[in-house]
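Tutorial sheet, problem 5. The two components below are modelled jointly, 487 residues in total.
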Amino acid sequence: MNEFALVWEHRDMILIGFQNTLLIVVLGTVGSLVLGVLLTIPLMSRRRGPALIGTIYVDAMRCVPFLLFAYLLYFALPSLGLDFDNWWTGVVALILYNGAYMAELFRGAWANLPKELIEAGQAYGFTGWVLLRRIILPPVIFAAIPLVGNQLIQIVKDSAFLTIIAVAELTHEATSLQTTYFVPFASFLAVVFLYWLTCLSIESTVGYANRLAEVRR
Amino acid sequence: MTDDQTTMSQLAVQQRPVILEVSGLSKSFGANPVLRDISLKIHKAETVCLLGPSGSGKSTLLRCMNWLEQPDGGTVFLAGQPLGARPGGGLRMRDKELAAMRTRIGMVFQHFALWPHMSVLQNVMEAPVHVLKQTKDEARATAVSLLQRVGLAGKMDSFPARLSGGQKQRVAIARALAMKPEVILFDEPTSSLDPELVGEVLAVMQDLVREGMTMVVVTHEMGFARDVASRVVFMDGGHIVESGPPDQFFEAPQTERARQFLMRYAARNN
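Model answer (structure tokens):
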């Protein structure tokens, strides 16, 4: 019980970590959704070049462990002249990595879209970006909502790996607490509870969005 | 109608301007030829029903008319202007040019193809606002009056998922009319409807015929073709086998293949 009291006493550390995790997850979510949508366009392109580049990117991301990718980025970005601190490196890593998964989800939803919906857009004079924005992407996004929800939870879990590049997120703060005071059980259990809370909030938000989307599919 | 009257009305139709023309159209899917050297003229205010067995090429012909299927050979003309290919054939038009011509041709699909993420009203307003660049107020006023005309004023804020098949198809017709097209192409508009819902869609189409809309209709509704069409075009094996006024086609078909088709149809429906 003393262990939990000690964690409570140092709750500031945990809360700073929680704030950082939430901020990183929000930025990672928005960034990976935008990247996912942008990557879906070349993935679905009839032209070979863009489709090949999109596929290579998505496959490359999906076949590398996130932990290693975060490390690579941490060491690679400065050598490319991009001077990000470790916090922003972590956010960029989450976006680049999860954007590939989002793109794959959207690609699947697009491929399952009835062909006539797009043809109706073309038959009525829609082309290019307007066809994409008004006719194709909204039903693709509505169809992908349940799968996007799973990926958002994956982003939360991936954010914990950012401790290895010293981002002051939840896992990192819990690790600091336990190494300083040797309270592993209490500190890790406290952050697991906060991860649960975050994931449950995401699940209920996605569930609500899914109910709204139901009639629009 | 007597034979003389039929001939007179056919002559009158042929004096009207040609809205849509296909000339020497051919199309294959892989090694399978679907259309073989098809030529056809659709005159203003004409209702042409394309009939024929499954796989005869009638839906492909319809889809070639607005280049949803790109023909392998031949030309489509809309009010005398080549559509899809540049004058002289060969080079494909730029997407923007093709899109501009497509706005003058309405299309109603077999499976409705309403945009599911938009309300009924938005479906009807969408292309006038985002393609024709009408103001929202103008497009809304037109959409509301068209939805009243097809009997769906009470469903304007519903989403397509909440409508019956017949209601969806009536929205699709209102969506086509909102573009004020020169011709509307109907691709088996009643084929995916429950039998009791077919009548409400055909009634709206009959109204359009009375109002003088130019229509090309791929259909298996022989009653509609007989009562409403100004001309029936019978296709088989990618060819136009027979073309003529509905009275002649249904009462005295000129070809053996058309006779067989009508006999099979009659046997199935007796």
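Marking note: The mean pLDDT of chain A is 95. Full credit if you identified this.
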